[in-house]
């Protein structure tokens, strides 16, 4: 393998084979919930109980799922290749870490963390959260929120991601529909800034599929290990 800096963008499709619902597939999360009610700052201000219930349910669901062969293959790529491998995930689950990945940015936050709205402090969190939960920092109830990025909020670590996109020589997008910016614009950014090879791996062509130099379609648990085997050969 000749690549030296690899950036891999992942979305809900990589966790689908673990049994985690995607968002926009026919039976996805947004067919069951109104994103404006559960994934916006305005929705949280209107009905924090509903929003806490939504994330409590999803956080508890993480105990029922495990990394699949796609997560494991990407951890193997980081461990066994000479390239620097950075995973930029839109996912708020912890399946990449549980598979062994260490170099990862959760641009949309993490379900197993909460944040104090009083001072911005971020805490690991494994149980339910409610409007009555006192903040361990300041003792105030109602000041903790899920440490996730809602629609209308700025994703995390955009400077670091921008530098990695500019410097990479391979950009791979896995399991994302390409509907949500800024992640949906990463492939165009890579093409504008450098000469990296670009690959899309997804169940079906995404919104931005025509911008990728190479594509592979199928279930991530099958296509990703095949792709990683090829890179490590
Ligand atoms: P989507 O639900 O929009 O897209 C998931 C993609 O995965 C689709 O293109 C599916 O075809 C594909 N897919 C489904 N099953 C697959 C499988 N077994 N193997 C490979 N691909 C599969 O999810 P995202 O693109 O991740 O943000 O959504 C981006 C953001 O929109 C999320 O982070 C979330 C959501 O609203 C916020 O909540 C802010």
Walk me through the structure.
The chain has helices at about 10-15, 30, 35-40, 40-45, 50-60, 70-80, 95-100, 160-165, 185-195, 220-230; strands at about 5-10, 85-90, 105, 110-115, 120-125, 145-150, 170-175, 195-200, 215. With about 230 residues, it is an alpha/beta fold. The strands form two sheets. A six-stranded parallel beta sheet has the order 3-2-1-7-8-9, sandwiched between helices. A three-stranded antiparallel beta sheet has the order 5-4-6. The protein is globular. The relative contact order is 0.19. The site of 2'-O-acetyl adenosine-5-diphosphoribose (OAD) has 26 residues, from helix 1.
How do you describe this structure in short?
The protein has 233 residues and is of the alpha/beta class. It has ten helices and nine strands.
């Amino acid at each position: 393998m000749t690549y030296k800096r690899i950036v891999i963008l992942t979305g809900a499709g990589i966790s689908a084979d673990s049994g985690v619902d995607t968002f926009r597939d026919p039976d996805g999360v947004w067919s069951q919930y109104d994103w404006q009610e559960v994934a916006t700052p305005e929705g949280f201000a209107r009905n924090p109980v509903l929003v806490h219930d939504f994330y409590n349910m999803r956080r508890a669901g993480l105990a029922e799922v495990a990394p699949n062969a796609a997560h494991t293959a990407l951890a193997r790529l980081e461990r066994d290749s000479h390239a620097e491998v950075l995973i930029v995930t839109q996912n708020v689950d912890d399946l990449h870490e549980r598979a062994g990945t260490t170099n990862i940015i959760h641009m949309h936050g993490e379900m197993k963390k909460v944040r104090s709205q009083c001072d911005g402090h971020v805490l690991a969190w494994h149980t339910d959260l409610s409007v009555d939960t006192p903040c361990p920092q300041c003792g105030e109830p109602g000041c903790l929120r899920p440490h996730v990025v809602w629609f209308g909020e700025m994703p995390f670590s955009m400077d670091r991601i921008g530098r990695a996109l500019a410097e990479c020589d391979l950009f791979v997008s896995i399991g994302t529909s390409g509907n949500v910016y800024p992640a949906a614009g990463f492939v165009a950014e890579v093409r504008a800034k450098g000469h990296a090879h670009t690959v899309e791996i997804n169940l079906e062509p995404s919104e931005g599929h025509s911008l990728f130099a190479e594509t592979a379609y199928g279930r991530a648990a099958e296509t990703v290990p095949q792709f990683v085997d090829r890179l490590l050969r």
